[in-house]
Design brief:
Elements: E1 9-13, E2 19-24, E3 33-36, E4 42-47, E5 53-58, E6 63-68, E7 74-79, E8 87-92, E9 98-103, E10 108-112, H1 124-127
Antiparallel strand pairs: 1-2, 2-3, 4-5, 5-6, 6-7, 8-9, 9-10
């Protein structure tokens, strides 16, 4: 459920595996917007505060996809990793310029939605800093 009073939406799994359904509560007569989000079942659905974007992850946990709630178009696809993982949490920051993803691999990924070029893997020297636990 979107917390925005300007864009009242419910996002929920659709009728088919990997599909997402968006229901506009302000226009009860309109049909739900159906989005083919992933090939496998959805594990996470998260609306941003404004209700303008929705992020999804599947049970594979390798990709996070962000969609525009107005038309269902994909905004971006973010790779969390190549190995399957259980995604525990996906959250947007207050202005939806960043998205944070936490998984059972003991990792947290922060992606830029406004500047995709900032989404790079840490080099080995940064990943080996002493305050990070070894997994």
């Amino acid at each position: 459920l979107s917390p925005s009073c300007d864009n009242s939406l419910i996002a929920m799994p659709g009728n088919k595996v990997g599909h997402l359904q968006l229901i506009d509560l302000q226009n009860a007569d309109s049909s739900p917007l159906n989005i083919t989000a992933h090939d496998s079942s959805l594990s996470i659905i998260q609306l941003n505060v404004q209700g303008s974007k929705v992020a999804t992850a599947s049970t594979k946990g390798t990709l996070i996809r962000v969609f525009d709630t107005a038309n269902g178009n994909i905004i971006t696809e973010l790779r969390r990793g190549s190995q399957p993982a259980n995604i525990f949490c996906v959250n947007f920051n207050s202005d939806s310029s960043l998205i944070c993803v936490a998984s059972d691999h003991g990792t947290i990924h922060i992606f830029s939605l406004s500047q995709g070029t900032k989404n790079k893997q840490l080099n080995n020297s940064l990943a080996a800093v002493s305050f990070l636990p070894k997994y």
